[in-house]
Amino acid sequence: MANLLELYLKLVGLVLVGFILGRKLPHTVPTRVGQGLFWVGVPISIIAFLRKADLSGQIWIAPVIAHLAVFLGAFLAWWAMKGQAYLTKNIHHKSTQGSLLLAAMVGNTGYLGFPITLALLGQEYFAWALFYDMLGSLFGAYGFGIVLASHFGGNIRNYGQITQSIVVNPALWSFPLGLLFRQVTLPVVFEYSLEILGWIVVSLTLVLIGMRLSRLNSWHRLPEAAISLTIKMLIVPLVIGSTLSLWGVTGKAAQVILLQMAMPPAFATLIIAETFNLDRDLAVTSLAVGCILLLVTIPIWLWLF
């Protein structure tokens, strides 16, 4: 309970700071902060926290479950669109269907999932969150997600750019580098400094989320967003979470997987929606409402599992 309260104070506080700064500072600042975190900050934090992460056990299960969650989310969203035609006329537009599918599939397992895992469950279980994100969510978004986006949006001119963004992603390269760097013994002062840098990056990612949320002015498409969020943040975690013990995943490792599955839609869904001409209003609404809903769902999942 104390850890959860501390998390909420930091989570809400840092996001609120970012929200205020995002309203006051020039539009270029969030972009610059995001670029700095993308190229330098996040790779450093991955290397730092991997040093104390426990890589024993069935950690390879994490990306398998991540892909299962992606496909289950996509299937349930497709079923909702096809079988619940009475919900809204807008859902019949292909661009809206594409955004609905994306929001139901891929969660913010990096910028939100990492700090939440670290705050609630510690560095020991960070590798579970990292494997889930790097080998699961990343390819779910920029692999299967792009295939769907190109079908529902029709804009396929940017395949090369998207492929390049995966290949040159420094976070992806820092993953194996961090695994190798675990074998290197560092002086205590350097070890401590690396850990401090990692926590600074975590704080900045939360501030960046606040900055980006301050730029989201659209709250339309609530009925459609409710469909995606119900699937992404409630049904998929409940269904797959109830089977984790069958996979041999229990205790805090199971909580990490569950929390990663229950993250709100990733900012990547908005990037893909804009790239492939999908319903941007639905993507924006799903992101904003999902971040608010997360504050309610975290204690529920920790209590249930």
Report on the structure:
With about 300 residues, the protein is mainly α. It is about 75% helix and about 0% strand. The chain is built from 13 helices and no strands. It has helices spanning about 1-25, 30-50, 60-85, 95-105, 115-120, 125-155, 160-165, 170-180, 190-215, 220-240, 250-260, 265-275, 280-305. α12 runs antiparallel to α13. It is globular and about 60 Å long. The mean pLDDT is about 85.
Rg from alpha-carbon coordinates:
19 Å
**Order of secondary-structure elements:** HHHHHHHHHHHHH
What proportion of the residues is helical, as a percent range?
A: over 70%
Basic shape: globular
Describe the biggest sheet? none
Give me the number of helical elements: 13
Q: What amount of the residues lies in strands?
A: under 5%
Structure classification? mainly alpha
> How far apart lie the N and C ends?
14 Å
Whole-number average pLDDT? 87
Low-confidence stretches: none
In total, the number of strands is 0
Summarize the structure.
It contains 13 helices and no strands. With 305 residues, it is mainly alpha-helical.
Highlighted features:
about 300 residues; mainly alpha; 13 helices; globular
Tell me the layout of helices and strands.
Elements: H1 2-24, H2 28-50, H3 61-83, H4 94-105, H5 113-121, H6 126-153, H7 159-167, H8 170-181, H9 188-214, H10 222-241, H11 251-261, H12 267-275, H13 280-304
Helix pairs in contact: 1-9, 2-8, 2-9, 3-4, 3-6, 3-10, 4-6, 4-10, 4-13, 5-6, 5-11, 6-7, 6-11, 6-12, 10-11, 10-13, 12-13
